[in-house]
Amino acid sequence: MPATDDEPQIGERARLAELIQIMGRHGLNGLASRLGLLPGRSEQPVDVGTPERVVALLRDLGPVAVKLGQVLATREDLLGPEWVRALSTLQDRVTPLPFEALEPTILAALGSPIGDVFASFDREPIAAASIAQVHGATLRDGTEVVVKVRRPGIAERVDADLRLLRRIARLAARHSPEIRRLKLDELLRFFAESLSQEMDLSAEAAACESIGAFLQPLGVRTPAFYWDQVGRRINVQQRLDGMPVRAILDGAGDCGADIAGIYADAVLRMIIFNGRFHADPHPGNVFVLADASLAFIDFGAVGVLSPARRNEVVTLVLAIAGEDTRSVTDVLLQWSGETNVDRQALTRELDALIGQFRGAVLQQIELAEVFGRVFALLRTYRLALPPDLALLLRTLLIAEGFVRRLDPGFDIAARAAPIARELLRERIGPAGLKRGGRRLATSLGRLAAASPELVAFAERVARSGALPIELQGGAVCPTPTSPRRADPNLLSAGLLIAGAILQRDHDVVGAMMMASAVLPAAWAWFASRQRR
């Protein structure tokens, strides 16, 4: 009889039994009970163990558990500071495999003898991690390269451990409301997708080239790849002539501010304009090249901010800037999916939090401090952020820590302001309005049969990028005796601009707002023509 979804198969049962045994060895039977791994004991008050014991357990369980611990270390919205500190000590460093163990993988991936592709191949690795290790090599034409090779058997190990983690997550969610709040299913789904990308070394190469094309005009380089030698288990990439920023942080001196500025621009523009960004831009992954330019390496971790999510972030930022705490509350509750929350109390606390930073000098505010206070509030109200947003915040915190070490006076928030203004100019400029107008004209196609003149009006807006709006003087400058009313034409103009801003990333919302802008003016124009 086949096993049901709730019954582990034979291999999983053995791994589960091994897990329970290892937990007992670390004095974590209480945690096993809380997770529902020891039947009949989960309802009893138990000691789940210290963060240090859990970290030791994760190290013993292997690479997948270590990587999960690293992800959890970024989730201050879920875990308290003592847990985050302990989990942050987990490092993805393993004992390198000897060359003989990797050689069959290299031969199979290349499809030919190593000597046919490389003039030399360093048997000692440059670096080793749980998924892959990196070796230096030289191509037949003398070009120095870096060869990244996936560890043999890691795909099967990751797949088995992920199945086990999902099973444990389901058991734990049934037995513990506190663990259910962590939304482990969603977190593990995001974690599995990230691991899948990291194990596909061709996906890393594609991400590096794609994001690299965006960074190139900014003067930031990424390594080129030799696609004849790129596959899921291996990639061969250019070896950049430079040194990691980590090695020169202490001696950055006068160039520290310049490096910080270029780096901050690159990270912020990747997020704001590109939507795909290097999700682990720590000092070891950023190089200063021989020509003093900056380079990013190791695109195993890539963040993706969907257009919808970017709009939500913009909404949140605008609400905070406008001290509209009700809207801030709405966004946070939308992200968490929670409904059983005291909205008024949460709004009051958010208002107090925003008020504490009101009027402060930006250079005196650290993102880490702001995020820390927000995360504490989220934990208090048992709210959780979506995993993709948590990854974005982690990237911003890495970036801020980076630039503050290079230049203690660097203000990354002020650096973002001109980038945001640039985005605004792009969206409301003639080209942006034309794009929006064309989409709107298409959306109004159904009206052609009923009102050809109305559609002709919309098409002229699309071609010219201008909206014919007649402003009545009395509406703009009301007399003392006249009521102060919003002129519908001014409202139309405002909606048109707002629609243009949103339309780049959210066609439906943007088109609706632009339609709200154009249709009243268009209808007035059409009605005036009919009266004539």
TrEMBL record:
Coiled coil: none
Residue span, ABC1 atypical kinase-like domain: 90-330
Entry keyword set: Membrane, Transmembrane, Transmembrane helix, Ubiquinone
Pfam families: ABC1
This protein's name: Ubiquinone biosynthesis protein
Family according to the record: Belongs to the protein kinase superfamily. ADCK protein kinase family.
Signal peptide as annotated in the record: none
Transmembrane segments: 508-526
Domain of life of the source: Bacteria
